[in-house]
Every structure is written in structure tokens, then in C-alpha cells.
Amino acid sequence: MQKIDKLRGPVFFIVALMLLFTGVLVSRLFKESKPFQRSEYIMGTIFDITTLGGNENSLEDAARKAFAEIKRIDSLMSRYKEESEVSIINKKAGIGPVKVGQELIEVLKEGRRVSELSGGAFDVTIGPLSNLWGFDEEKKSVPPAEKIDEQRRLVDYRKLKIDEAASTVYLGEKGMMIDVGGIAKGYALKKAMKVFEEAGIRDVIINAGGNLNLRGGKKGKPWKIGIQDARNEKKLLGVLNITETSVSTSGDYQRFFIKDGVRYHHILDPKTGSPAKGLVSVTVVGRNEAMTDAMSTAVFVLGLEKGTDLIKKAGAEGIIVREDGTITVSDGLKEKFSRKP
């Protein structure tokens, strides 16, 4: 797993509230109110919870319960935990179906939906390739081409069988593996935010290494969310004015290594088995936390033209940055996004 001091997740700047630099949170205090902020390292990243106003005891209780929810989702869906439902499904690949809870079925169904929409650019059965490249383990080596081809053949979301009536999941071939890392964080954000909603706490931002869930705002106004420049971690690409939504960014600067002048990053193209090319970052904005999480990956893999079409097809909005620095902003965000010089 990644170490905290080496996290390189997409960095959001919550303007006038918080600055995030490579996973380290720096808070700025408003004169009129002191934000409540708590952080924990879960699911291979830092989850930050920030709220404005409210009773501190109530906020502490809600934050504790929210983190507990995130840990519970991780215990079900991490492929690194031996007893997780995902690990058991992977062990039983090509052998037989595994009975699981409704939550994993919900996540896998959403993942399959994005897979179908994107023509397989996002694929929850990417596990064999994820393990081969080993970005989570910081292997920092390029696998042999024959190994990539061998593992690529095991990636096929169409062989993932979900039986809702029986509450079972089955991978149709030995060696196949589920990896829900590209969608589970979004689902965990949804569950964490529900804790605050049920407690009647409105002005909340939860950040999970590039995925944000936002409710309320500052004095009834939208949050100002800054998006990091993919090639300069101390510089803003621009600022989004939004609320009551989810934001997910995928970038080639999150987990990567450079070998012989080539950047190899963790966003793998299921069709080639290697890191996707053409883009440096994709930000997707929408109401479905799990969908935006998976969609940012799918769009990154598809590239500008097909990725733009996918965003429209999914009813979401997005910001796409190409390797040459060109920025494309969807129509629904043009009045909400301001470029930074």
C-alpha cells in the first residue's frame, strides 16, 4: 500500500477554506467562524472532513461515524484484505459464485454500467493488470510485453456475473480479479456524507485523494474548489464554484514513475494493458459519487473526443486537460469555472 508521505493524489484547493498539497492539509481560518476539520488515512489515501459551524461535540460524533462507515466499506471492497468480499470473489474466480451484501452488488452494478457506457474503458476486472504494474506497491518497473498481454486477456467486465436475486457475484475465469479502487472511494464518500445529512449538518466537504463530496456552502454561497495544475503542484489550473455535488479527478500525476524519459502512471487502458495516453487530468462533476469516480477514469482512458461524448452521454460535466496543455470545459461548467493565469 502507499505510504502517507508519498501520496501524490490530485490536489484540490478549497479556496479560503483549505489548501491541499500532496496529501497534507493546511487550514485557513475564517474570522467569522472556525472550520471543524478531521483527517484519517483509509483506502490508501487521506480522507479529509471539513465543516463550517455547528456544535463541536455533534461534529466530532458525526466525523467518527463517517470514518467508521468508510472503514466498513474498505473492509468489504479492498482487494488487499484477505476476508473482504472482493478478495473472496477473486479467490473463487472460475470456481463458483460468492454470496455478498447488497452494497458490493450496488457498486459492481454501477461499475458495469460505466463499463458499458464507455465500451470497457473503465473495467472493475482490471485487477490482474493492477497487480502486474503494482503502482500501489511502488514497483516502478515496466512489465514485459508478454506478461501484459497475458494479464490483459483476463480483463473483461462481461465475464462478471451478478445475480441480484441470489445476491451472488461470479468471475467466469480463473485468474480474473475485481479491483474496485476506481469506484469504491466515491461510494464511501456517499456513505460518509449520509452520516452528516442524517445528523442535520449541512455545510460539509469530504475529500478523498481527488474525490470530493460537497454539501451546503459558505453563508449560502457555493464552495470555491480549486483544481491543481497537473504539472505544477503549487499552481491552480482554475477554480470551480459549485455545491451539492460530487467532483472526481483522475490524473497521470497521482501515482507514477519515470523510466527512460517516459511517464508511467496508474490509469491503465484495459485494451492495451498499459497506462493510457493523451491526457494529463480529467475532472468529472455529477450527483452520483460512485459514477463520477469511475467516469473520471473512463474519460481519461478514452481521450478528449470520446471522453467528451461519454460525459454528455452520462449526463455529467467535466474538465479535460490534454498533454499539450489544452483545456476543454463542458458547457454546464463554463460559467462555473475560472481559469487561473
Describe this structure in words.
Helices cover 29% and strands 29% of the residues. The chain has 341 residues and is α+β, with helices and mostly antiparallel strands. It has 2 domains: 4-75 and 183-339, ApbE-like domains (T-fold); 80-171, T-fold (Orthogonal Bundle), CATH 1.10.3980. The strands form 4 sheets. An 8-stranded antiparallel sheet has the order 4-5-9-10-13-16-17-18, covered by helices on one side. A 6-stranded antiparallel sheet has the order 3-2-1-11-12-19, with no helix packed on it. A 3-stranded antiparallel sheet has the order 6-8-7, covered by helices on one side. Strand 2 and strand 3 form a beta hairpin. Helix 1 (56-77) packs antiparallel against helix 6 (184-198), helix 6 packs antiparallel against helix 7 (289-302) and helix 7 packs antiparallel against helix 8 (304-313). Mean pLDDT is 89; it is low at 1-32.
